[in-house]
Write a structure and sequence with these properties.
This protein is of the alpha/beta class and 194 residues long. 16% of the residues lie in helices and 32% in strands. The strands form two sheets. Strands 2, 3, 7, 8, 9 and 10 form a six-stranded mixed beta sheet that branches. A five-stranded mixed beta sheet has the order 1-6-5-4-11, covered by helices on one side. The structure holds zinc ion (2 copies). One zinc ion binds next to loops.
């Protein structure tokens, strides 16, 4: 057994954003609580040895598994991360555009309501804030749209970053060949499916 198989798995985050920032793609695990993100960075990610950080994307139908782990200088507080997520446009853009390197940073995800945003802010329904009725429970004014309440989100990136160079996209047939991915699925998928 490799030492990596004893690292606990962590999935208590809300998703992953992919953003251009500082001329490089950024992979941004998202948290709702800034303090939680900051302490995870301090305890777990900061002690990671950059060149050993592995980031894997296992594609299964319309979803993908985000899987991330690393060797560390502080084994007592090490964690490996995973999350099953739907493929998105930003994910596909990252897959095509990363060029073998990316920054890892954490992000804090904040929901915004109609009162918090400018008129041209875009709602989850794809229509702008000014197309939502401020008087009557923020419903979207487009006839074809069934959005009942304006909602959008903002991502604030924490400043600290790590450089990712070991990035792989895998399909189901490859999963047994990658120890980190195989450990993750055994611990978090196969053992829980019954
Ligand atoms: Zn809307
Ligand atoms: Zn709408």
């Amino acid at each position: 057994m490799s030492s990596q198989s004893s690292v606990p798995w962590y999935d208590d985050f809300v998703g992953v954003a992919y953003r251009y920032y500082d001329l490089r793609m950024n992979v941004v695990p998202l948290f709702t609580d800034r303090k939680e993100a900051a302490s995870l960075w301090h305890d777990t990610i900061h002690p990671w040895v950059d060149p050993s950080i592995k980031i894997r994307f296992l594609e299964l139908d319309d979803n993908y598994w985000f899987i991330m782990g690393s060797d560390t200088q502080k084994p007592d507080t090490n964690l490996s991360f995973f999350k099953e997520l739907p493929k998105s446009e930003n994910y596909e853009r990252f897959k095509k555009g990363h060029g073998g390197e990316a920054y890892l940073r954490l992000g804090v995800y904040a929901k915004k309501s109609l009162g918090d945003v400018k008129k041209d802010a875009v709602c989850d329904c794809s229509h702008e804030a000014q197309d939502h009725d401020e008087g009557d429970g923020d419903i979207c004014l487009f006839n074809s749209c069934d959005c009942k309440k304006f909602s959008s989100f903002q991502v604030n990136l924490l400043k600290k970053k790590k450089i990712l160079t070991d990035i792989k996209f895998l399909e189901e047939k490859d999963m047994k060949n990658d120890p980190l991915v195989w450990n993750c699925l055994n611990a978090n998928k196969f053992s829980k499916s019954e």
